[in-house]
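N-acetyltransferase (Corallococcus aberystwythensis), 184 aa
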Amino acid sequence: MAVPAFDRVVMPRLVLRRLVPEDLEPLVAYRNDPEVARYQSWTDYDAQRGRQLIEFMQARQPGEPGWFQFAIALKDTNALIGDCALRVDVDDPRLGEIGFTLSRPHQGQGLGTEAVKALLGYVFGTLSLHRVFAVTDAKNTGAAALLARLGMRREGHFIENIFFKGAWGDEFQYAMLAREWAAR
Ligand SMILES: CC(C)(COP(=O)(O)OP(=O)(O)OC[C@H]1O[C@@H](n2cnc3c(N)ncnc32)[C@H](O)[C@@H]1OP(=O)(O)O)[C@@H](O)C(=O)NCCC(=O)NCCS
């Protein structure tokens, strides 16, 4: 059965929706926060990069092979407070990877957990993926706690498998199967 075009996922405090041009300023602001960027792939995140991301996502649908970036917005105001992503495996579209970022003022309130819960619900429910994984820096305690809180299983601790921002780093891999999500 064909999947309907993505519109939004509504949660008690949040909405996952498409990125729109109006998101550029808050997106660049939180991605440039060194605390937010510490365990992420980018260092300096400029407006051109943000604009390219927003434009690139306009023509994409989650579930297509490759990355789709979802906006995380407050339900009451529609203001962008973060983003999360799904990467569908190009060789087997039943497999996916997720990522997530929340602006600093919105951390510590359970909003990240709420957003990733919405993402997993969409990925396993609407998109019917079989398995989802996430990779975090082993020092990123907030991200690891969030994934564990949602029932994802720590499957791997990779020792110094990435040279990252000037040093070798360890990473954790977390994963979950569709039947484990359904049984939660
Ligand atoms: C990863 C990240 C989203 C985690 O943010 P977070 O605020 O720790 O996670 P949550 O939004 O789920 O909030 C959980 C915290 O809110 C608290 N909380 C408060 N109210 C809550 C509520 N109503 N429901 C649930 N938790 C609540 C929890 O107790 C927890 O606090 P603790 O960390 O002191 O135990 C955030 O650190 C981030 O964006 N970092 C930068 C980007 C990044 O590294 N991304 C991950 C790459 S893999």
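The domain at 8-182 is CATH 3.40.630.30 (Aminopeptidase). Residues 37 and 125 are 30 Å apart (CA to CA). ok done for today
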